[in-house]
Every structure is written in structure tokens, then in C-alpha cells.
Design goal:
The chain is mainly α. Helices cover 38% and strands 9% of the residues. The chain has a two-stranded antiparallel ribbon with strand order 1-6. The protein has a two-stranded antiparallel sheet with strand order 2-3. Strands 4-12 form a two-stranded antiparallel sheet. Strand 2 and strand 3 form a beta hairpin. The longest helix is centred in the N-terminal third of the chain and has 30 residues. It is globular. It starts with a helix and ends in a 10-residue tail after the last helix.
Length: 592
């Protein structure tokens, strides 16, 4: 895949130098050129990988109640404070996803005409794998399109997006109707199922006994032949497990309150998630270090061959840099302090005994708010008095501090809320230009924890907190395991969890809160608020900390660090304004 990307990068250079060749190279080559050039054919598919929609930093979180940005030019800040419009949509997936789908459709229409190998058995195996990748990638891009642009129109119809399964050219009719939400879900599921049928569950070193029967019948009797096509050197590409995850992600979205008219049932979503989780033994497979996967990046010894920690289902490439630290370390550590966690999020972390801070049994001390809290709070957020950076420097955000780390000390650098981001950062990094210490980073595209939380949410809605359906574990079992991993409720048997396991509603609130904490700063919160049909307008809160002459701390809430300005109809995103102006059949979502 890396070689394909390199070839694509150099194609424009070669085309620009056509006077060096006889006959001259043409700048535009059509798809028929792929028939005799497998590398060129793979380049079409490679574009669908290049256009993957995953974000490497917590971008959309600053448009939610979890964080704000101290960068006044931030497009998500502007969106959250009233500038979100159909012609100004930072969340839009329209152009990138449809560009990828065009490449995929071109590939699928021609893949059977390409000679991948002179030997039939290898030709069939390569054809199957690449075709499976294409179907899986189309399902993925369709899912992100549906998530961003599916919604209700002015007449109350729940629509998805145009379903385009054929390539388009200058003679095509681009005036597409939007498919129903149900039709879009079905299209995603069909593509994902085809990917699962054609692809290995994962790319690894296979043994002779693991060769699929359909290839054994072609004469593939040696595992080395199968590994040539589906071995561990292909890790990082679309596989069967990723395609199964896409089904679970699509189903939980479609079953949620904002889209429940799609007809997708909670039982279905739970089943799809269980299909993935059962591959690792269910709850027993929860990675003990999964909550701090980004800290342990150096402990994985097989990155060079595409390996991942046990927590990670799919990741991006590893990069040795300090970019996220440069953006988010406090200014005293040469950072810009861009993402500022809110008091809203801090308050969502329970006490060490498992109780929410609002409970009388929490033993929460308003004058010492960070003591005996959920350990994830200190893992994910830098608060007043925290240590951060390669020298474990104490970060003071209180007014008595002497650096620009102090809340609202310097516009564009200091925190606006009293907190800085820790999650995703590596403390050994030093953005100081005199040091410029770097460390390994990667984007976790899909984590097993997300799948556990999908299962817990869907299972609770389908069968209640302790129901298991056809599986051997319940929503209660999953949440108990996740909270035990975090280190909360260990001393008292998690009394709070035990107190809510008899109520679907109370368990729902707990599951949603656990999802908020576990997946914070990974660009989930914005989509979750909307699919749950909750209020986007909760003002972002912060805290001012003073120290009186006796040395005692005084905490004053900042109730409106950033007042949000979302309209009710924004529970559904817009179809791009420019597209609705061009195509009469493209109906806009209501309100936009």
C-alpha cells in the first residue's frame, strides 16, 4: 500500500515531464489502463484509503459540552456559537466521501478484468481480497455520509443520502434522489456483508489448517500461498472484523432516538456488536490497559509489521512527532493549550467509590474537588496542580500562578475553562524548539471499548440491564468490567452500579456517561448528543481558582465560558447548500 501511495504521488510529476518520453505520456489515463497494470488498478482503491474520514485530534469535541477552543478562528467554535449553516458546515462529509465512492465504484466495475496473477489461485485470491476491501470501504464511507447528512425533511420523512453504486462520468445524470434512511442502512449492511464474505477476519500468519475451503478447492494447500495474499504484511487494510464493526456502528446509530423510525432494532445492534466481541471472548477480552492505549504506544513492538495493542481494532500509521503536544500542552510547556476541557465534563467523572459527585454517598468535597476521583480524570485532563510534560512540571491554572497557564491569562494560549488536555498526549514530548523531543502517536480509528459500549447501550435497551439475549453477558457485565478497569468502585463492590442495575433508565444514563468518559476527545460526543436527541445548547462551564491568605483554595464556577447557539432542527445536519442549488431532486433537511 505504501508503494502504491508513492506511485500515485509521482504520477503528476511523470505526466508533467512528457517531453522526456517517446511517445509522450498522456496526462489523463482512463480506467482501461488498469487491466494490464495491477499496481495502477490498486491506485483507484488506494484513493479510498487516502480519503478516510478519521481525525487525529479532538476537533469536533470543542463544539460540545466537553470542551472549548482558545483559538477564536476555530471553525467548530464558530459553528457552536451560531455560524453553522448549510453553506458553512465543518461537519460535512459530502465531498470527501463521494469522491472516495467514485474511486471505489470505478474499481469494482473493473476489478474482474484485471489480471492480478498468472496463476489462477493467486489471481482469484487477490481479486477476492481487493474486492472485499472495496465493499468494506464503500460501507465505511456511506456510514460517515449517513451520519453527517441523514435526517428528517420538512414533511417529516426520514431520509438518508443518495445511494450511488455505479461510477459517474460526463454523461451521467447527477440529479439524484436521496434514499430513505432504511434503504441507506440496508446498502451499508449489504456492502459490509460482502466484505465479510470475501475478507479474512484479520491479516495474520495463517497455518495450513486455516486456509478457507474455497481456496483449498483451487489447490491452495500451503499456508505460505495464502499468506502471500492475506498474511500479516497486509495489516492496516480493511478486513472482515472492521466490516463487522461498521455494521454495529450503523445499527446503533439507526436504532437511536433521532433515527428510530428507520426500523432498526436495539436487538440487531446488540447482535452486531456481539459478533465482534465474541471473537475475543466477550467481556473477558476487555484490554486491561485499553483506557490508556495512547500512553502505551512505545510498548508495542510490532508496529513495523502493522501490529496494534489489544485495544485497537484499526489504527492509522504511526508518526513520531509532538504535534498534538505543540497544540495542547499548557503554554509553560511551549504548547498552545488549544483544547480546554469543560467543568461539565470534569463533573461527569464519578468519585473513586463509583458514585456521581451529586450523590450524598459520593463524599465529594467542593473545596478539594480533585481528590478521590475516578482515576480517568487525571489520565485525561490536566487540572490545577497536575503534573505534565517531560519534567512532570506542576501546572497552575489558579489566579495565584506565575505563568501563562493561569486561566484566561493570555488570549489564544491560556485555558478558558481552568483545564488543559492530557488524553492523546505523550508527556515525554517537549515542543520547546531547543529540545523538540518527539514520541510515537497514531490515530485509533476503532477501539474495542467502543464496541463494548455499543453492546452495553443496545443490550440495555433491548433486554434491560442484566438481560443477555443470545449472548453470555449483559450491559451490566460490560459496564462493571469497564469501571473495574478504570479503578472505580473497587473498595465497595461498586455500590452505585449495583443500585442502578434494576432500572433500564438509570442504567441508560450510566452507560451514556461511561461512553462520554471513555471516548472523550475522540470525536464521538457531538454525534452521540445528536443521535440521542439531547440538547446541544448546554453552556460550556469552567472554574476560577483563587488562594486566600490562609492558603486555602476557593473555587468559583464560570457558568458561561461559551454560550452555545444551536437550533432545534440541528439535531440533523444539512445537505450542502451548493448541492441543493444544483440538483432539484436533492431535498434539504428541515430547518436548513
Amino acid at each position: 500500500m505504501k508503494n502504491i501511495f508513492k506511485i500515485l504521488a509521482f504520477l503528476p510529476i511523470l505526466a508533467a515531464c512528457d517531453d522526456l518520453f517517446e511517445p509522450a505520456l498522456e496526462n489523463n489515463r482512463d480506467e482501461e489502463a488498469m487491466y494490464d497494470e495491477p499496481g495502477y488498478a490498486q491506485g483507484f482503491l488506494a484513493n479510498a484509503y487516502i480519503l478516510l474520514p478519521y481525525q487525529s485530534s479532538p476537533e469536533s469535541d470543542v463544539a460540545t459540552d466537553d470542551a472549548v477552543s482558545n483559538d477564536i478562528s476555530n471553525s467548530y467554535l464558530k459553528m457552536a456559537t451560531g455560524a453553522w449553516a448549510a453553506d458553512n458546515d465543518p461537519m460535512s462529509q459530502w465531498q470527501g466521501r463521494y469522491n472516495a465512492i467514485q474511486y471505489i465504484n470505478l474499481f469494482l466495475e473493473n476489478v474482474d478484468k484485471v489480471e492480478w496473477s498468472k496463476e489462477e489461485k493467486f489471481d482469484v485470491m487477490f481479486n477476492d481480497r481487493l474486492k472485499g476491501e472495496a465493499y468494506g470501504l464503500r460501507a465505511l464511507h456511506m456510514y460517515h455520509l449517513l451520519r453527517a447528512h441523514g435526517g428528517k425533511t420538512s414533511d417529516g420523512s426520514l431520509l438518508g443520502i443518495p445511494i450511488i453504486t455505479e461510477s459517474e462520468n460526463f454523461g451521467s445524470d447527477f440529479n439524484h434522489f436521496r434514499g430513505t434512511y432504511e434503504e441507506c442502512v440496508a446498502s451499508i449492511m449489504n456492502d459490509a456483508d460482502e466484505a465479510i464474505r470475501l475478507l479474512p477476519l484479520e491479516y495474520k500468519t495463517f497455518t495450513n489448517g486455516e486456509i478457507p475451503s474455497r481456496y483449498a478447492e483451487l489447490g491452495v494447500s500451503n499456508a505460505s500461498d495464502y499468506n502471500r495474499v492475506c498474511g500479516e504484511s497486509f495489516r492496516g487494510l480493511m478486513n472482515g472484523r472492521i466490516a463487522a464493526v461498521i455494521k454495529a456502528q450503523t445499527a446503533i446509530m439507526a436504532a437511536s432516538p433521532a433515527f428510530e423510525e428507520s426500523g432498526v432494532k436495539w436487538e440487531t445492534a446488540a447482535g452486531y456488536a456481539a459478533d465482534v466481541l465474541n471473537q475475543i471472548g466477550g467481556v473477558a477480552g476487555l484490554d486491561p490497559q485499553g483506557g490508556i492505549w495512547y500512553v502505551n504506544a512505545d510498548n508495542v513492538t510490532n508496529y513495523g509489521t502493522g501490529g496494534s495493542p489489544a485495544e485497537i481494532i484499526w489504527r492509522g500509521s504511526t508518526i513520531n512527532d509532538n504535534d498534538i503536544e505543540t497544540e495542547n500542552f499548557p503554554p509553560s510547556l511551549y504548547g498552545k493549550g488549544r483544547v480546554n476541557p469543560t467543568q461539565n465534563l470534569v463533573d461527569a467523572f464519578p468519585m473513586l467509590n463509583g458514585y456521581p459527585i451529586s450523590s450524598e454517598k459520593a463524599m465529594y468535597d467542593v473545596n478539594n474537588p480533585y481528590v478521590d476521583r475516578d482515576p480517568r480524570l487525571s489520565h485525561y485532563i490536566v487540572y490545577n496542580g497536575s503534573a505534565q510534560g517531560p519534567g512532570d512540571s506542576e501546572i497552575i491554572t489558579g489566579s495565584y500562578g506565575t505563568t501563562t497557564d493561569v486561566t484566561n491569562k493570555e488570549s489564544g494560549l491560556s485555558t478558558r475553562t481552568g483545564y488543559y488536555l492530557r488524553k492523546l498526549t505523550r508527556k515525554q514530548c517537549n515542543p520547546n524548539s531547543n529540545s523538540n523531543t518527539t514520541a510515537i502517536h497514531y490515530t485509533a480509528r476503532i477501539r474495542f471499548t467502543e464496541l463494548f459500549l455499543i453492546y452495553a447501550e443496545a443490550a440495555n435497551e433491548a433486554w434491560g440491564p442484566t438481560g443477555t439475549g443470545n449472548n453470555g453477558y449483559s450491559a451490566y457485565d460490560v459496564i462493571k468490567a469497564i469501571r473495574q478497569r478504570a479503578g472505580i468502585g473497587l473498595e465497595n463492590g461498586d455500590e452505585y452500579l449495583e443500585s442502578v442495575k434494576g432500572s433500564k433508565e438509570l442504567m441508560r444514563n450510566l452507560i451514556r456517561n461511561e461512553r462520554r468518559l471513555e471516548l472523550c476527545f475522540e470525536n464521538f460526543r457531538f454525534w452521540d448528543i445528536r443521535r440521542w436527541n439531547l440538547d446541544l445548547n448546554e453552556s460550556a462551564k469552567g472554574v476560577l481558582i483563587d488562594r486566600n491568605p490562609d492558603g486555602d483554595m476557593e473555587y468559583t464556577e464560570l457558568p458561561s465560558v461559551e454560550v452555545r447557539n444551536y437550533k432545534d432542527y440541528m439535531i440533523y445536519g444539512p445537505v450542502p447548500y451548493s448541492e441543493t442549488q444544483k440538483w432539484s431532486n436533492l431535498i434539504q433537511n428541515r430547518g436548513w
